[in-house]
Structures are given as C-alpha cells and as structure tokens.
Amino acid sequence: MKSHLALLRGINVSGQKLIKMETLRKAMEDNGYQNVKTYIQSGNILFDSLENSPEAVENQIHDLIEKHFGFDVSVVVINQETLESVSKNNPYLKEKEIDLKKLYITFLGSKPAEENIELLKKANFEPDEIVIKDRVVFMKYNNPAGNSKLTNKLIESKLKVKATDRNWNTTLKLLQLFQERDSA
C-alpha cells in the first residue's frame, strides 16, 4: 500500500462544487481506498492505495468525484516526501522577517515546460513573488492573497498544468498528518 495526499481544487468555495468530506470519504472507501482521512473542507485527502502512480490515482479520484458528485474537479496527488521537501526548502523562510501568513504553496499536476515557466515569471503580479522548483511554486504575497494578480488561474494558464494552492500553515499541517500516520 502506498500513502498519498489528494489535493482538490475549487471545492466548497463560495457555495460552489459542494462536497461533504464525510460523503467523499465513504465514496473513496467504497472504491477500495483505505485509511481515508480528510482535513478541512477545502479538499485534502490522505489515503492508502494499491496504486503507486500519482497520475493514475489523480485520474481515478477525478473520475470518482465526477461520477459520484457530478463535478469536474482538478486533483493533484502528492506524497509525504514532497511535503517534507517543501517544508525544508521554502526559499522565503531564509528571510529575517517573514510573515508566515504571506506564504503559499502551489502544487502542480506535472512539471511545467521551461518556456512556460518563463511565461509565468514575465507575467505582471508584482509586488508578489514566486520561486518554482520542479512541481511546486513557492509564493510570497506582499498584497493580501485575495487582492493579488498571482492567482491559481494565472499559474495554470501560463504553466499549462493543473494546479492547486494551500497556505503555509495548511501545508505544514498536512505534513504533520502524514507523519502521524507513520507513527501510528
């Protein structure tokens, strides 16, 4: 069994694509996933699967949600190693005075092409900042996140990959949940 974390994009936001986590947990268990646990209503699902491939699991969960709930929802699947790497390698943590509430992580469905990375870097989202490493965009908002031009829609349109973001505290909590599974 392989442990995975599925990150859903755009559910339970402003009354759109409403999915109760209890119902989603049950649907996943009914489809063979084990040790299914959700965290908050924004679509964070820890689970075990016989399938090792993140891409295969993404497709399976996408299809399950579409069939069961009738929504087309982007799904990005990552593992504990990705979260550990993100927590250790956030370039903005090196700054002397950093407000952790300004830090967000965008998880990408696949590694973007180099020319698309350049397109995103050239986009105007100042004064906000990004660093892209592999399938992760580290973000520091210098404006309130809700007022920023640096949106998930912009990231997806420039990088040409699916993406979903989480604030820094949620990212660390998801890592903690993975670690708690290891020690159980």
Task: Compose a concise summary of this entry.
By secondary structure, the protein is of the alpha+beta class.
Q: Can you put this structure into words, describing what you see?
A:
With 184 residues, this protein is of the alpha+beta class. It contains 6 helices and 8 strands. The strands form 2 sheets. A 4-stranded antiparallel sheet has the order 2-3-1-4, with helices on both faces. A 4-stranded antiparallel sheet has the order 6-7-5-8. The protein folds into 2 domains: 2-78, Alpha-Beta Plaits, CATH 3.30.70.1280; 81-183, Alpha-Beta Plaits (2-Layer Sandwich). It holds the Pfam family DUF1697.
Secondary-structure blueprint:
Elements: E1 2-8, H1 21-30, E2 34-39, E3 44-49, H2 54-69, E4 75-78, H3 80-89, E5 103-108, H4 114-122, E6 129-133, E7 136-140, H5 152-159, E8 163-167, H6 168-183
Antiparallel strand pairs: 1-3, 1-4, 2-3, 5-7, 5-8, 6-7
Helix pairs in contact: 3-6, 4-5
Pfam family, one: DUF1697
InterPro entries: DUF1697 (IPR012545)
